[in-house]
Write a structure and sequence with these properties.
The chain is an alpha/beta fold and 342 residues long. The chain has two domains: 170 residues, Rossmann fold (3-Layer(aba) Sandwich), CATH 3.40.50; 144 residues, Rossmann fold (3-Layer(aba) Sandwich). Helix 1 packs parallel to helix 2, helix 3 crosses helix 4 and helix 8 runs parallel beside helix 13. It is globular.
C-alpha cells in the first residue's frame, strides 16, 4: 500500500513520527512531503524521517494564498504520477484539495476549530475526519464537514507525541545550560505568524512575565523564529533554546511551563508539569479539555500569571490520571479502512 503523508507544521512531526515508523515496519510504501516553515526540516532529520520539501509558509494573507497555490502545483507534480492508496494529514491545506482532485481517499486530523480559513478549505473535501470529542461538532459542521465522515475520540492529538517517549533526566546538563537559580521555567511565545492569530511578531505577551519571574527562576525560551528570539536576547537568567531539542524531556524536567501557544501547553499537561496558558487568542477546546481536568491554568492577566507561577514553584499540584482513547489505533485502523474502500 502506498500512503502519502503531508507534514506542514513543526508539532506535526512529533505527532506523525510513530505512525510513520509503524507503517514502515509494516512494509508500507510512504511518500512524506513537507514545506519550509519553522523547525520542520530539523525535526524530521532528528527523528530520521525521509521527506520531500515543497513550498514554504506565507506571512501576509496574499503571501499565504500565493504560497499555497504554488505548493499545490508542486505537490501535484510529485503525487499525480504515483498510485497512492490513502493520503493522511493534520491541518494541511493542500493535501485534502489535491486528494479530492485526484480521487485519493484522505484522512484528516483536526484539533483547531478556530482556524476558519483552513477548515473551510479542507473539511468539505475529506473522506474521514478525526477530531476530539471536546470540539463542538456543530462548529465543524458549519465549515462544511460531513457528520457521517467524522470519527471523534476522547483526548487530544498530543497524546500521540509520547507513544515512544523516553525521558532523559540529564537533558539540562546535556544542553550545558548555566542555571544560576534552583528552579527552571520553560516558556513558549505565541504563534505570531499563524493566520488565526492577530499579533505583532516583534513583541510577545511573555515579556512582562519574564521581567518578573527571571528573579525567581531560570527562564528557558523556545522561540518559533529568529525575530521572536531577538525579543528575549541579553536578559539575565534567560536562555534561548536552539532547536531541535528534546522538548518533551525539557518539559518534564522543568518546574513550570508558561506558554502563549497551544501544543506545548497540552504536552505539559499530559506530562503532569504545572502549566499556565497565556495564549492571547480565544482558547481552543482542546485547551479547555485540560483546564477542566485541573491540569492547566489559564489567564491573560500578567499579575495573575506571575502570582500563580510563584505559587506553582512553591507548591506544585498533585498528579492526576488521564484516561483517553487510543488515537494511534484509531488512525492506523482508519488508514487501512479507507484503503479497502478505495
Amino acid at each position: 500500500m502506498k500512503i502519502w503523508i503531508d507534514i506542514t507544521n513543526a508539532p506535526h512531526v512529533r505527532f506523525f513520527k510513530d505512525i510513520i515508523h509503524h507503517l514502515q515496519e509494516e512494509g508500507e510504501d510512504l511518500i512524506i512531503t513537507s514545506r519550509k516553515f519553522g523547525d520542520i526540516h530539523k525535526l524530521m532529520d532528528m527523528y530520521g524521517i525521509d521527506f520531500i520539501s515543497l513550498g514554504k509558509h506565507g506571512v501576509t494573507l496574499d503571501e499565504k494564498l500565493k504560497e499555497s497555490t504554488n505548493r499545490v502545483n508542486e505537490l501535484v507534480d510529485v503525487v499525480s504520477s504515483e498510485k497512492i492508496d490513502v493520503a493522511l494529514s493534520k491541518h494541511s491545506i493542500e493535501l485534502p484539495r489535491i486528494s479530492f482532485g485526484l480521487g485519493i481517499p484522505s484522512l484528516y486530523v483536526l484539533d483547531n476549530e478556530h482556524a476558519v480559513a483552513a477548515n473551510k478549505l479542507t473539511l468539505p473535501l475529506c473522506d474521514k475526519i478525526i477530531a476530539p470529542k471536546i470540539i463542538d461538532v456543530w462548529k465543524l459542521l458549519s465549515y462544511g464537514a460531513d457528520p457521517n465522515k467524522m470519527i471523534r475520540y476522547d483526548g487530544t492529538s498530543e497524546i500521540l507525541h509520547f507513544k515512544s517517549f523516553e525521558y532523559d533526566d540529564d537533558i539540562l546538563k546535556k544542553l550545558e545550560l548555566e542555571n544560576s537559580l534552583p528552579k527552571n521555567i520553560l516558556m513558549r511565545p505565541e504563534p505570531s505568524l499563524a493566520s488565526y492569530l492577530d499579533t505583532d511578531c516583534n513583541e510577545s505577551v511573555l515579556s512582562p512575565i519574564v521581567d518578573v519571574l527571571k528573579e525567581y527562576s531560570n527562564i528557558l525560551i523556545l522561540p518559533r523564529f529568529k525575530k521572536q528570539a531577538a525579543i528575549f536576547e541579553g536578559i539575565e537568567n534567560v536562555t534561548i533554546l536552539k532547536p531541535p531539542v528534546d522538548t518533551s524531556s525539557i518539559i518534564k524536567k522543568c518546574d513550570l511551563v508558561v506558554g502563549a501557544g497551544g501544543t506545548m501547553n497540552r504536552e505539559s499537561a499530559i506530562l503532569q508539569t504545572p502549566v499556565i496558558s497565556c495564549y492571547p487568542g480565544v482558547p481552543l477546546s482542546v485547551d479547555q479539555y485540560y483546564i477542566d481536568k485541573g491540569l492547566m491554568f489559564r489567564s491573560n492577566s500578567t499579575e495573575e500569571i506571575i502570582n500563580k507561577a510563584l505559587s506553582f514553584l512553591v507548591n506544585p499540584p498533585k498528579h492526576t490520571k488521564i484516561k483517553h482513547d487510543d488515537l494511534f489505533e484509531i488512525i492506523i485502523n482508519n488508514i487501512y479502512d479507507l484503503a479497502k474502500k478505495a
